[in-house]
TrEMBL record:
InterPro entries membership: 4-hydroxybenzoyl-CoA_TE (IPR050563), HotDog_dom_sf (IPR029069)
Signal sequence, start to end: none
Organism: Nocardioides szechwanensis
Alphabetical list of Pfam families matching this protein: 4HBT_2 (PF13279)
Classification via CDD domains: 4HBT (cd00586)
Swiss-Prot/TrEMBL keywords: Hydrolase
A molecular-function term among this protein's GO annotations: fatty acyl-CoA hydrolase activity
Name of the protein this chain belongs to: Acyl-CoA thioester hydrolase
Length: 293
């Protein structure tokens, strides 16, 4: 069984190209997840999973751009794995094709690893039997589960620094920065890296970068405070038409979160993936070589 959530779109969700910003999708996933866990919560624990879980990892694959519509986008969500103290949910964000019944236009697929959490004691807990029974209703085990490897550390001496200032509105009722906001922090750091990397290059207006994949590991909660945290980002790999960036948010020597983002170069006129020009590629390769050295 799968749960379907009708997610309304907001005009403020759009980026400069008129598409739903890649960060906003994670907010949609959160809304769908909470809707499932709240509607189907066991009577003995009505709010424990809906409001008492923390995200351990997000893996988000962007399939197509979503433009603003007055009708909601549909989000199908289900469970792929249940362990002693964690469970994994999968999502598909789509619109039904009005011209072909049974077909859908998929904008995004994602998975989220979650663990129940006792916020009053700042500790994870095991999944209760009644919660396990509820999650089992939506369980579709994957045939070939992915072996999730922790994201790599970012060498700071070859990375671009971005100070992460936490806003009061970033924090949830438990005093932690909401998992969605991490995507915003990594996006801001990525823009800072791009600004420096491509400064002075000609023809930059004809080339856009779009996000194809984002993986985020959550390690230690980020809390509200006046002092900024440190985000370090680097070019980790350069492909023919894409590049991979790695980032981490730190508090001194403590790593709070890590991210890996695959970005594709797109021609603004055709919308197709293209290879960056020689000047772009040279700077990318130089940055990647410095980060791996």
């Amino acid at each position: 069984m799968r749960h379907v959530y009708e997610c309304p779109l907001r005009w403020a969700d759009l980026d400069l190209q008129g598409h739903v910003n890649n960060v906003v999708y994670v907010d949609y996933l959160q809304e769908a997840r909470v809707d499932l866990l709240r509607i189907h919560a066991p009577a003995a624990r009505p709010d424990d999973l809906a409001e008492g879980v923390v995200v351990v990892r997000h893996e988000v694959t962007y399939r197509a751009s979503l433009q603003f519509r007055f009708r909601p986008v549909r989000i199908e969500c289900w469970v792929t794995e249940v362990r002693a103290a964690s469970f994994t949910m999968a999502y598909e964000v789509f619109h039904d094709d009005p011209d072909e019944p049974g077909q859908r236009r998929v904008y995004l697929r994602a998975t989220t690893v979650l663990t129940p959490y006792v916020f009053a004691e700042e500790r994870p807990r095991r999944i209760a039997p009644e919660e396990r029974a509820m999650l089992a209703q939506f369980l579709e085990p994957v045939d070939d589960p992915v072996d999730r490897v922790r994201l790599a550390a970012v060498p700071q001496e070859h990375a671009v620094h971005y100070p992460v200032h936490v806003r009061f509105s970033d924090v949830d009722v438990y005093g932690h920065v909401n998992n969605v906001k991490y995507f915003e922090y990594f996006q801001e750091a990525r823009i800072r890296l791009h600004a420096g990397l491509f400064r002075g290059l000609e023809g930059i207006e004809d080339l856009h970068l779009v996000v194809a994949q984002t993986d985020v590991d959550y390690r230690v909660p980020i809390l509200f405070r006046p002092e900024p945290y440190d985000c370090w980002s680097r070019v980790a790999r350069v492909g023919e038409r894409s590049m991979t960036l790695e980032s981490e948010i730190c508090d001194g020597d403590v790593v709070l979160s890590r991210a890996r983002v695959v970005m594709v170069f797109v021609d603004v006129h055709t919308g197709r993936a293209v290879a960056p020009g020689p000047a772009y590629r040279e700077r990318l390769l130089t940055a990647a070589a410095a980060g791996s050295g």
